[in-house]
Amino acid sequence: MEKILVAACVLMLSFNTQAAQDAEAVYARACAACHNGQLPIAPQKGNQAAWAPRLTKGMDVLVQSVTNGLGAMPPGGLCSDCTAEDYRAVITLMTE
Question: How far apart are CA 89 and CA 83, in angstroms?
Answer without folding.
Answer: 10
